[in-house]
Amino acid sequence: LSVNHDYFETDGHPLAVVGTTYMSSEVQRLFFEHPNVFMWNQDLGQIHDAGLNMIRTGWWTGWDKFCDENGQPYERTLRTLEAYLMTARKYGLPVQFNFFAFLPDVLGGNNAFLDPAAVRRQQTLISAVVSRFHDVPFLAWDLINEPSFSQHLWTMRPNGDPIELAAWNEWLDKRYPDRVKLAAMWNVPPQSLAGTISLPSEMEFSPRGMYVGVNSLRVNDYILFAQESFAQWARTMRATIRVTGSQQLVTVGQDEGGIQDRLSPAFWGSSVDFTTNHSWWQNDYILWDSLAAKQPGEAMLIQETGLQRELNLNEIARRTPENEAALLERKVATSFIQGSGAIEWLWNTNSDMTESNETPIGAVRTDYTEKPEATLLREFARFAPSLQEHLRDPQLPPIAIVTSQASQYSVLADFQLEAQRRAVRALTYLARLPAYLVAENQIQRLGNPRLVILPSPQALSDTAWAAVVKYVDTGGTLLITGPVERDEHWQIRHRAVELGLKAHAEPLVYHNAELKLGERRISLAFGQQQQSWLDSLHFDDGSTLREMPHGKGRIYWAVYPVELAEELQSAAELYSYVATRIDIAPPFSLLAPLPAGVLVFPTVMSDSVLYVMSSDSDEDAAINIRDQATGAALAFRLPAQHAAIAVIGKKERRVVAKYGF
């Protein structure tokens, strides 16, 4: 089991991952306390017969049963894992094994990631387990499932212990050796930073803290401190694995919080061998889930996906089993857009869970009857072998969306996240232009897109701004929507003026505005929250979109944060206008109109073009398109809220593999 820059491989051949999570149908997460190889053999045989090609497993609870207080695993623990791996090997199933869940605090210490004593015991556990199985070729290690940085799970808040406080101050001293300058950045009196600098308080994470004398300008630094500290922990654990002689894959299993305000693959991705995302709740942003988790030059896997049960107020399920399966179909299909595939959570439903949204998750019920999800997974598994032979050398789309972490790691994060999501939908669903995402701290790995879009940034670090301007200088085209006149500490910058534009930022305090695109006028409307917090740009000549040469490239600058206007079509029209100006056309032509809720996303491979189509519409859609690269036509009916995949061979100029039609 290995990875290249984009996909998994087995024995050197691409693998389209269609897997599941499995512990035991009998005792679920207690399978190490109560191992039953007879049940494993039965269940893994069923998974194998379904055609699935990878399983994820590991420890989510009960670590005190697996090892002593120093982290040394018991011999029975290692023998249990050996039996599990032998059973998986019998059925040819690669295994991802998870060590910790949420916070690795089970081995004591004052801070799970920063306390040397705690980290040493974690290394003992990992080292002992990996040493025993370091040469198992079908095994990968997941360091921790859905990590949070502190005891305040699923948020980015300080733990508040002395070790964290000391590490925070050490980090600040290295990053900002001049306390007077740091005070200016944070807009506080210099004397307030004398001595030990406290961790941010809860009020500082509130956008209204400034009204009670507490500003939030330290939040960005705290989040960067947490990101870098966790990335260092991941590097330490990966190095611990490598010392054993293991060359097995290592990852971190993060959920959607990682691409929002928690520990992000944009930071820890370089510490592991592939990145992940767990697509659970962001059902309206399934594509964004994948694009944001994918890091430049590194494979990405949707490592958990499934259906959390949605309930009405009377505790009755909102979705039918068939509708749940349709949503899972869209998630699995979309996982092949710049991703390696998906692992479903969970094969057997876990009736021991205490929350009603989790109890029913799984393809096989406790009475061993199957949900429609199981049939769906079998269908994807049958398709995977015909897909994976084409998963080679994917080309990046010509458009990159650069995300602002300066805004995303502020107390106004929701605006930047919404700008990203709406930019993705406007480009791909409405303008029919595929794109990829690059986070601000990854800007040096941008590549060579023909167009970079900076959607409603409001703020950006000086380093990132210099990088995008350099991209333009070397011949690229940049589209900015709204101002970018602040840095990560919300300090004023005069970036438009520095580019030779007579312009300034001002508060966006109106509901209606117009954006002029040549002879066309696009109406924009901004809601209450946008009027309360956002800025717009004002050009002295009254124009609303400027086009200007810079170096060898060009900059298009719209004065409004268009992605955050109420009507999404406005952003799509702006994107199409700029793309047309620089001769970027959709990679397929529409032979018949498509509903706005239908995604058609092509990826050019070395020998083919991979088309993923997903419907968010309430009506069936007649897909009738022609691929521009091959001239091949694609025509079929896509059922409402379902997905389909087609592979068009470049030599054959026709569909050579398909799913869903």
Question: Mind explaining what this structure looks like?
Answer:
The chain is an alpha/beta fold and 661 residues long. It has four domains: 2-156 and 223-388, Alpha-Beta Barrel (TIM Barrel); 162-220, no CATH class; 399-581, 3-Layer(aba) Sandwich (Rossmann fold), CATH 3.40.50; 588-659. The strands form seven sheets. Strands 8-7-6-5-4-11-10-9 form an eight-stranded parallel beta sheet. Strand 17 (512-517) and strand 18 form a beta hairpin. Helix 3 (116-133) runs parallel beside helix 6. The longest helix is centred in the middle third of the chain and has 25 residues, at 219-243. The chain is globular, with a radius of gyration of 25 Å. The two termini are 31 Å apart. The model has no long low-confidence stretch (mean pLDDT 97).
